[in-house]
Structure formats: C-alpha cells, structure tokens
Design goal:
This protein has about 290 residues and is α+β, with helices and mostly antiparallel strands. The protein is about 60% helix and about 15% strand. It is built from eight helices and seven strands; from the N terminus they run H-H-H-H-E-H-H-E-E-H-E-E-H-E-E. Strand 4 and strand 5 form a beta hairpin.
Length: about 290
C-alpha cells in the first residue's frame, strides 16, 4: 500500500495506472523502477570507484617520481660531500705544514691568514659531516625496537662530557614512556637536541635542561627544554629549514642542519617536530612518535 501511494503521488503515473495498468502490472512496474534506480546508483558508484582508482594510480606515479628525485638528491649530496673531503684535507694539511715548518719565515700576518684558512676548512668539514648525516637520516634502513628514551637521553648527555665540564647545568630527565623506534636514529635526534640546549645555555650561569613528555592518546610526545638564549617566534618558519640559522655565527657556532636532521628522522617515524620559545627565556623542542609504530 505504501508503494502504491508513492506511485500514485506521481501525476503522469497515476493516469497511466488508472488507464492502462492492472494491479499486478503496477507492482511489476514498481519493481522495474527500483531496478532502474539501483542500476543507476550502481553505475554512479562504479564510475566513482574508477575515478578514485585513476587518481590513486596518478598519485602513486607522482610519489615514485618524488621518491626517485629525493634519492637522486641524497645520492648527489652524499657523493659531493665525499668528494669535497679530499681537497679540504689537502688545504688543511698544507696550511698546518706551512705553520709548523715555515713559521720562522712567516710574519705574524702570514701565520694569522693560514690560521684563518685552517679555521674555515674546519667549519666546512663540519658542514660536510652534517650534510652526510642528513643524507644518512633519509637513506638509512630503520630497525624498529623498544626504546627506553630516559636511559638513552642520559647516555647522550654523558657523551657531551667535554662540553659540560666546568659548567653549572641542572640536567633532569623525567620518567619517560618507552616507545618503538630506531635506536640509532633517535639517538641522533637526542644528540642534536641536547647538543643545542648545551650550546644555547652556555651564557647562563645556572643552566637548566629538562627532558620530559606530554600525554597524548595517539603519540608519545617528548620534549627537550632549556632556559638558554631562545629565539624569536616570528622567525619560526625558518627553524627547521636546511642551512637556516636564527643566531649569527659569532653568537653560536653551527651549520643550520641539525634541526633539519631531527625533522627528517622524526618524519620517517611518522611523527612531527615543533617548538616554542621566547628570546632570552629558552626554547622547547617537541617531537612525537606514534604509539602504534611497528
């Protein structure tokens, strides 16, 4: 009865029904209409699936192209970095020989200039090392295992023994939740972040560095917080940019690659990196690792 009422509500079908069709024919017609409707919906759905499949195929092709380009770029950086080491060692070596063997024949200006050459080769060597680290961060195969971040952070801080000697640093590590991640890569993340905190707090008489975490449902969120020089948040978009520096070379040494490495490693783990700071009042760099990472 309900179906009949629906059909009779359509004016032209009402006249058609009253003039031509019998009750049984009317029911068949109704079934035909339903079949036509279902076929139309099914056709539309098939078309959507076909369109989605085409888009996915295009997306896969673009992803492959992007991955190939990225691999080529990393291979290029790796190769160039290795090739640059040879002439750099030669420049530094001959400069050192000149100072050691010909110091009595050089005036003070000559020695000063050679020392400047050696200092710059040292900076370039550090830059090459950082580029190689960045390249490895993207190429290195990951081995996921359960990590005790608290223990790892303490070990990493111990590696900076020479940089922390004679300084008053209050280094604290909270009872951090364990996580699934690649040990070598996360060690590099902590090395870069803790190293930055040690560097940027060196002007503080009482430096504080804290490794902590924030509660979250999906990710393990860790942070490295210090009370050092900090940075201006209006330049935040440059914070993780390659070769971007928020302090001059005269203020704090560095190549501007460290946080790019951190971002690349955390991105490979499916997490993200972000930070907050205030000039003169320190900085906090957060990084997340998915809890379901396998």
């Amino acid at each position: 009865m309900i179906l009949s009422s629906v059909l009779l509500a359509i004016p032209f079908l009402e006249s058609f029904y009253n003039g031509v069709l019998q009750a049984g024919d009317y029911f068949i017609l109704l079934l035909l209409l339903l079949v036509v409707l279902m076929v139309a919906l099914l056709t539309e759905r098939v078309e959507k699936v076909r369109t989605l499949k085409n888009l996915n195929n295009e997306l896969k092709k673009e992803a492959i192209k992007l991955e190939d380009a990225n691999n080529e770029l990393e291979a290029f950086a790796y190769s160039v970095s290795h090739d640059l080491r040879v002439p750099l060692r030669a420049i530094d070596g001959f400069s050192r020989i000149m100072i050691e063997d010909y110091e009595d024949k050089l005036d003070d200006e000559g020695v000063r200039l050679l020392n400047i050459i050696r200092e710059n080769t040292k900076k370039m060597g550090q830059l090459i090392d950082d580029i190689l680290l960045l390249s490895r961060a993207g190429r290195q195969e990951m081995t996921i295992s359960k990590l005790d971040i608290s223990s790892l952070a303490k070990n990493v801080y111990g590696e900076f023994n020479q940089d922390t000697q004679g300084r008053n640093i209050d280094f604290t590590v909270e009872d951090l939740p364990k996580t699934q991640a690649d040990r070598a890569l996360i060690t590099q993340v902590l090395t870069n972040l803790i190293g930055n905190s040690i560097k940027f707090t060196r002007e503080k008489e009482n430096a504080k560095i804290n490794i902590g975490f924030k509660l979250d449902n999906e990710d393990n969120i860790y942070y490295v917080k210090d009370n050092g020089a900090g940075f201006d948040m209006k330049y935040y978009d440059k914070l993780f940019g390659l070769f971007q520096r928020l302090h001059s070379q005269e203020e704090f040494e560095g190549t501007g690659v460290g946080l790019s490495i951190v971002q690349r490693i955390i991105s490979r783990h499916g997490g993200r990196v972000w930070g907050e700071s205030e000039v003169g009042n320190g900085a906090t760099i957060y990084f997340s690792i998915p809890k379901n990472l396998k």
